[in-house]
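Title: Comparing notes on inverse folding

I've been comparing how different people in this forum approach sequence design from structure. To keep things fair, I'm posting one structure and asking everyone to reply with a full sequence. Here's the target:
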């Protein structure tokens, strides 16, 4: 099981709302204090205020800092580079600010090496962005997901940031999504998902007293490491086809995105020896699969059904072997590596390069080639 966060943006999101909700989920206040100290922002501090989201009590963070303090992009980059944060978090913070700088320059038509933000250069924005990535690491979050963005009175930078994202306009009077929240959340997938709910953290906005929906909630959960998918299985009985067409047929189906294709010999009515063509595909490619089958087989009809499929999360890594570099597919369950196998095409190239049987490649890798199959 892996930890996930689902950002449910009921009435909007801002940097302080996200931080307050993450604190409520378990991000340590001591970690936040150490971060502020580490950033060496003179005069910057914070406190928490108790507020209510409906009948739910939560905490809202209030920042204190010198009113005229405003940092340039170069100053922010220097501060982050000099912190004791790990390299991965530093890179995420700097990437966030680089994206903000790019968007602000595009919107306002002003480019400068020492670019100076407006609100986004204030210490609270820096603390919100840095603490966001620090919190995800401290809470050991593996994946994040996000709801539709509710928009009202959006800044030009926010609109630019949220291009290609699902949004809905609410007609409220306040700025529902700030650029800080937009840049932090924009890369998270927006989709339905199944998971086990574990904890909920609430973050209230500045207008919670007059705008009852000015809050968000972040839901922490656990998700099975297996990927759950819907796939289509197409089946066609063929009793009058020349089997010589199968090689070309399979080539076309795989080229157009078939997940798997296999042919089974069967006995049909009147004891006729026949073939059962089975094709696995996703719904997006269903029409292409049907068109190929109608054009390149003798059938007048196709049947298909939807099935659930669970598969392992996997990734590819390149390994140095005595025979050369070979890609391996690694499968994970509950966060642990449970199996790996070399890619067939790489093994075939190695066999050709060294002029040895393919089975010898698998033998030298310490594997049994009989278990290799197309997924």
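Reply #1:
Here's my take.
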């Amino acid at each position: 099981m892996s930890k996930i966060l689902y950002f449910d943006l009921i009435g909007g999101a801002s940097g302080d709302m996200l931080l307050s909700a993450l604190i409520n989920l378990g991000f340590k206040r001591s970690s936040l204090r150490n971060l502020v100290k580490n950033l060496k922002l003179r005069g910057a501090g914070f406190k928490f205020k108790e507020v209510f989201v409906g009948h739910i009590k939560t905490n809202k963070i209030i920042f204190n800092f010198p009113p005229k303090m405003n940092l340039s992009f170069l100053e922010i980059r220097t501060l982050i580079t000099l912190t004791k944060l790990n390299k991965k978090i530093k890179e995420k913070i700097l990437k966030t600010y680089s994206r903000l700088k790019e968007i602000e320059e595009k919107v306002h038509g002003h480019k400068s090496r020492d670019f100076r933000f407006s609100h986004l250069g204030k210490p609270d924005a820096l603390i919100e962005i840095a603490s966001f990535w620090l919190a995800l690491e401290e809470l050991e979050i593996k994946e994040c997901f996000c709801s539709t963005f509710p928009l009202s009175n959006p800044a030009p930078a926010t609109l630019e940031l949220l291009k290609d994202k699902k949004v809905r306009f609410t007609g409220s009077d306040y700025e529902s999504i700030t650029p800080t929240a937009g840049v932090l959340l924009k890369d998270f997938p927006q989709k339905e998902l199944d998971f086990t709910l574990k904890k909920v953290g609430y973050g209230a906005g500045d207008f919670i007293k007059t705008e009852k929906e000015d809050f968000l909630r972040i839901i922490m959960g656990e998700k099975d490491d297996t990927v759950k998918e819907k796939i289509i299985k197409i089946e066609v009985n063929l009793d009058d086809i020349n089997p010589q067409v199968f090689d070309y047929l399979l080539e076309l189906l795989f080229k157009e995105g078939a997940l798997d294709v296999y042919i089974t010999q069967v006995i049909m009515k009147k004891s006729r020896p026949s073939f059962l063509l089975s094709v696995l595909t996703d719904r997006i490619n269903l029409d292409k699969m049907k068109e190929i089958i109608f054009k390149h087989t003798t059938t007048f009809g196709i049947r298909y059904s939807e099935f659930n499929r669970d598969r392992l999360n996997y990734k590819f890594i390149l390994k140095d072997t005595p025979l050369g570099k070979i890609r391996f597919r690694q499968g994970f369950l509950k966060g642990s590596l449970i199996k790996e196998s070399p890619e067939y095409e790489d093994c075939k190239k190695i066999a050709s390069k060294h002029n040895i049987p393919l089975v010898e490649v698998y033998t030298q890798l310490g594997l049994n080639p009989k278990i290799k199959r197309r997924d």
